[in-house]
Design goal:
Layout (H helix, E strand, L loop, with lengths): L6 E3 L4 H11 L3 E4 L5 H6 L7 E4 L9 E4 L3 E5 L4 H5 L2 H6 L1 H9 L3 H6 L2 H7 L7 H6 L3 E6 L2 E6 H4 E3 L2 E2 L6 E8 L5 E8 L10 E9 L6 E9 L6 E2 L1 H7 L6 H14 L10 H24 L7
Parallel strand pairs: 1-3, 2-3
Antiparallel strand pairs: 4-5, 5-10, 6-7, 6-10, 8-9, 11-12, 12-13, 13-14
Bound molecules: flavin-adenine dinucleotide.
């Protein structure tokens, strides 16, 4: 379980990080919270020659918000800061819920939001709510920066669009729509420090009548290599007056759209059933919150 020898850098600015990643190339790894990286190094899955610790770089940390525009979350923001942020709880509830469920208190104090997406585990907690909330990521290199939706950044199991010399710097979350609500939940043995068998986030906005679904994003995790947007299920509810029958149809459609595998955590059949369970529960909760009605019994 010993780590390989490596040279350690602790830059103070984003410019210094970009110089380092540009110069050191694939032999270097970014060290954020280290809760994935150091385990992979201990297990000899990775043997970087250089570690670039980004924890001293203030411009990559923290949560800011501008009314009408939305929130910006720095890549090196700790999951615990997101979990305890009143702003995130009020405006982006699904992300607040997911942050509160990631690992243990110790892990959340170390782990960063950026690390969770860059590691790109199919079972990761925060990408589904971020995608449901319409988050974009900002990717930077010496050559400049680009913005892309998170669902285009994560390409597969431990695969992202990050090319040599690039780092993720921040997440951009749009202002939530009026009469909207988001919710997140998972199925899994978290008390046993187990990762999710299935997770899901829903972000639902209603028309002025408070009953018709104006927009909807349903994103499933752990049932595909990437956060999976339940396009069919969304289409069943968008433009319709929310009711139990359509909600059930949408839940069944999401279950069909899921593309799970069987592994030691759950069978593919169980995962599909749990997709429908989560879809019903989250759609009802989000509708109740967006319409201002009492929370349901799900
Ligand atoms: C006991 C335990 C329980 C866990 N439980 C959960 C869980 O329930 N749910 C869950 O989703 N995860 C869980 N994890 C995994 C892990 O904590 C998260 O994925 C975490 O968010 C990773 O963030 P980090 O800052 O620690 O990343 P690091 O380990 O520092 O980095 C992860 C990867 O991303 C790269 N990277 C990080 N930041 C950047 C950046 N800005 N630009 C480019 N590359 C970057 C690193 O080089 C590395 O390859 C758990 C881990 C442990 C040890």
């Amino acid at each position: 379980m010993y780590l390989n020898d490596f040279e350690y850098f602790a830059p103070k600015t984003c410019g210094e990080i970009l110089d380092l990643v540009g110069r050191l190339g694939t032999k270097a790894k970014i060290l954020a919270g280290g809760t994935d990286l150091l385990i992979m190094m201990k297990e000899k899955m990775l043997k970087p020659d250089y570690l670039i610790d980004i924890n001293d770089v203030q411009e990559l940390k923290g949560i800011s918000y501008e009314p009408g525009k939305g929130a910006v979350i720095g890549t090196a923001t700790k999951i615990s800061e997101i979990e305890h942020s009143d702003l995130i709880r009020e405006k982006y509830f699904a992300l607040s819920q997911a942050a509160g469920e990631l690992g243990s208190a110790q892990v959340r104090a170390m782990a960063t939001l950026g690390g969770n997406s860059c590691h790109a585990s199919p079972a990761a907690e925060t990408p589904p709510p971020l995608v449901a909330l319409g988050a974009k990521v900002v990717v930077k290199s010496i050559a400049g920066e680009k913005e892309l939706p998170l669902e285009e950044f994560i390409l597969g199991n431990r695969k992202t669009t990050l090319a040599e010399g690039e780092i993720l710097t921040k997440f951009l979350l749009p202002e939530p729509a009026p009469r909207s609500a988001s919710r997140y939940s998972y199925i899994g043995l978290r008390d046993a420090m187990e990762i999710d068998a299935v997770n899901m986030a829903v972000n639902l906005a209603l028309e002025d009548d408070g009953r018709t679904v104006k927009s909807l994003r349903m994103v499933m995790g752990s049932v595909s290599p990437v956060p999976l947007i339940a396009v069919e299920a969304q289409g069943i509810l968008i433009g319709q007056v929310f009711n139990q029958e359509l909600m059930e149809k949408a839940a069944q459609a999401a279950s069909v759209e899921a593309n799970p595998i069987s592994d030691i955590r759950a069978s593919a059949e169980y995962r599909r059933e749990m997709v429908a369970v989560l879809a019903r529960r989250l759609l009802q909760q989000a509708f109740n919150a967006a319409s201002g009605t009492k929370e349901g019994n799900w």
